[in-house]
Amino acid sequence: MLRKILTIISRNFLYKLAAFGLAILVWAIIQGEQIEERSIDIKVNIQVPPGFAIRGDLVQTKSARIRGPRVWMIDSPKVLETDFVIPMGKRGRFRGRLEKERIKKLNQRFELVIHDPYIEVYVDRQIERTVSVKEILQGTPAEGYLIEKVTLEPRVVTLQGLREDLLKIRQVVTEPIDIADIKSNRTKEVKIISPNTGVKNMGVTSVQVNLKVGDSKINKRFGSIPIEVLGSNSKVKVRPAYVSIMVQGTPGILNFVKRPDFRAFIEAQGLKPGRYEQDIKVKIPSDTVLIETFPEKGIVTILPPDDPLTIE
């Protein structure tokens, strides 16, 4: 059986070999004449002079269509690449056109159509700028509590980027910090939100936020506090005779504060006989904060030594 097959193959072998070669040649000619067209991306590497930067990414992608013989397409790259060089000294908006001749590893016999062959960028000097960081609080502490103090570490951050954009930035902010129903001090690591536009780099990307939580405070008014006159050996009259004082403190403190814990007075030392408008000064209990004194001034009259003291 094997001998019969070999006999068939060897019969007219040269003719068969020539026919096979001719078939390959015809196939190659046909393939070479067939034209293929397909979409392709062009990776554009934007190159800027030292000390300069652009607004946006240094790498852009352009869409194109490439056309040529099918056999050539087999070895063509899947993604084309080119460099777009910005000349030294250019600032502001710069527009340039991509040239087919500058595309790397492209067989120039291919037809190439770039749908949008123009690159437009904004160019400026790259600078550094230090700005403050501002915390963003979200929510409300638990009832009876408040945020007494917020400290950040670090409080400033150094930005790198385009000069025009960085000069407009006064501060950066953190991501929202949830303080809903908080009752005790907290320390959190929180990310900084990048301004993005024109900013190429931030010295730090997060800050440590320390939240000091305290009891909530209320205001309480205490009236009919008598006004004293201090520092005068003469007979005096003062109007009004009483003052109202509003202070702030925690409910636990203010519930135990009484009217005798306050003192209101006017300094009259060195005043000669006459009528004067003076500030009313007050002393308040510890752990409270003065909110208001009403009135803030009083009229004190220094009487001559030989005048009787009369109260109107």
How would you portray this structure in words?
With 312 residues, the chain is mainly β. It folds into three domains: 33-125, RNA Polymerase Alpha Subunit, Chain A, domain 2 (Beta Complex), CATH 2.170.120; 127-215, Beta Complex (RNA Polymerase Alpha Subunit, Chain A, domain 2), CATH 2.170.120.40; 218-302, RNA Polymerase Alpha Subunit, Chain A, domain 2. Helices cover 13% and strands 51% of the residues. It has helices at residues 2-10, 13-33, 70-73, 163-166, 251-254; strands at 35-47, 52-54, 59-69, 79-85, 92-97, 111-114, 118-134, 137-138, 145-153, 156-162, 171-174, 177-178, 186-193, 199-202, 206-215, 218-230, 236-239, 242-249, 263-267, 274-279, 281-283, 289-294, 297-302. The strands form five sheets. Strands 2, 5, 7, 9, 10, 11, 13, 14 and 15 form a nine-stranded mixed sheet that branches. It has a five-stranded mixed sheet with strand order 21-19-16-18-22. The chain has a four-stranded mixed sheet with strand order 4-1-3-6. The model has no long low-confidence stretch (mean pLDDT 87).
